[in-house]
Specification:
five-stranded mixed β-sheet; single chain; about 400 residues; about 15% strand; alpha+beta
Length: about 400
């Protein structure tokens, strides 16, 4: 603060006792003009100077206030920093509040609907209903989803019931076909019984005639094979006529390898005529022999049906193979070929009586009869899909392994 004296202004009081600055032009002008003046003082330490006259019309002094602009900058920087931190804090609070509100009003009901939809993967009937919570729009969405779920569940139950009904109808048709097949087989058995007996007698006489001829060993073997097949068919026909039903298996130990090789020899003329080759071998060369307790006649009937189908399906130059072995301690016999195989349409109708892919040349009974005979033996006849050809496997029960 500067006070007026006779010579002008003299320094009287200062905030810094070590700094005794003298009044300058701004201070004098402010006293003379009775006005508040301010100016900026540049330099190494820039300042802002404000001169305020004191004392009414006759100013008796001047108040000189000087503020370093560097400090103002520091104050401004500090204020900006506080404002920035305050803005960030407010933004975080707003974001947290918004997230909480969105989670409560949107996330919670929407999550409940999503969880309900995720449970519908196993089927609409077992899917949980969506809770009707949240704002009006989400409650409306959940209500619509529950109505859709109920409608789909009704359709699923209707489809299941319809599929079960179709399955029962198809099974009933299969039983009708089997009954017709049994009736037809009984009539045929009655008609072919007498010719079979006649053939058996003539083959026995032929065997006696060949027995004394030199070099007739091969012919005798062929006659023996024919007699064994005629005897087998005769036994089946007689059993059907006597009981009016499918034959009851008569089990005894059977060598599957010997049986397969005998069938290949029996079908040799047919194979030669069809220009096909056939082999019989064990699946495991270390175990060439495999004995099971079963009905040899019924097994031969099944294999002959499968071999007949293979011979008719495989083009000239093809190959048919019989294999026997064990898998999981369960014996089996296989008939495989390198023919065209079965189409998906044919596979879908396997083992159905009177369903055939041979047209008028087939009866559609071979596979149905073979499967039923396999079941009577305690086994199972299955088709194993292959990339080339067809493969059939006749499973025997584990208890039948000798």
């Amino acid at each position: 603060m500067y006070l007026r004296d006779s010579s002008g202004l003299d320094a009287s009081i200062g905030s810094d006792s070590t700094d005794r600055r003298q009044p300058d032009f701004t201070d004098s002008t402010s006293r003379e003009t009775r006005q508040v003046l301010a100016r900026f003082i540049p330099g190494a330490f820039p300042e802002l100077q404000v001169a305020v006259p004191l004392g009414g019309p006759r100013a008796w002094g001047v108040l000189d206030v000087r503020v370093a602009t560097g400090r103002l900058d520091a104050w401004a920087h500090a204020e900006r920093r506080r404002s920035y931190l305050l803005g960030v804090g407010v933004a975080l609070l707003i974001a947290a509040g918004t997230w909480g509100l969105v989670s409560w009003w949107v996330g919670r009901p929407l999550g409940a609907i999503i969880n309900a939809m995720a449970g519908a993967h196993a089927g609409a009937s077992d899917a949980p209903p969506a809770p009707e919570t949240g704002v009006k729009e989400f409650r409306h969405l959940a209500r619509r989803y529950n109505l859709l779920r109920s409608a789909l569940a009704d359709r699923e139950r209707e489809s299941s019931a319809r599929a079960a009904l179709l399955g029962l109808e198809e099974r009933a048709r299969s039983y009708d076909r089997l009954a017709l097949a049994e009736e037809t087989a009984a009539g045929l058995a009655h008609e072919i019984g007498t010719p079979l007996s006649t053939m058996n007698g003539h083959l026995q006489l032929l065997r006696e005639d060949l027995r004394g001829m030199p070099g007739s060993a091969a012919a005798n073997e062929r006659v023996a094979l024919l007699l064994s097949q005629v005897d087998r068919v005769t036994r089946i026909v007689r059993a059907g006529l006597s009981r009016g039903s499918w034959p009851t298996p008569t089990t005894h130990p059977t060598d599957l390898g010997a049986l397969a090789q005998a069938l290949v020899r029996f079908l040799e003329p047919t194979l030669v005529q069809a220009r096909l080759t056939a082999t019989a071998r064990a699946a495991d060369p270390r175990a060439p022999s495999l004995r099971v307790v079963t009905d040899t006649d019924l097994v031969e009937q099944i294999l002959l049906n499968l071999l007949k189908n293979a011979i008719e399906a495989v083009p000239p130059g093809g190959h048919v193979q019989l294999r026997w072995g064990r898998e999981d301690e369960r014996p089996y016999l296989e008939v495989a070929d390198d023919g065209p195989g079965l189409t998906p349409e044919v596979q879908a109708q396997l083992f159905q009586p009177f369903v055939t892919s041979k047209g008028s040349a087939g009866t559609g009974l071979g596979l149905a009869v073979s499967r039923r005979l396999a079941g009577s033996l305690g086994g199972e006849l299955v088709y194993l899909p292959e990339t080339i050809g067809a493969r059939w496997r006749l499973w025997f029960s584990r208890e039948s392994a000798a």
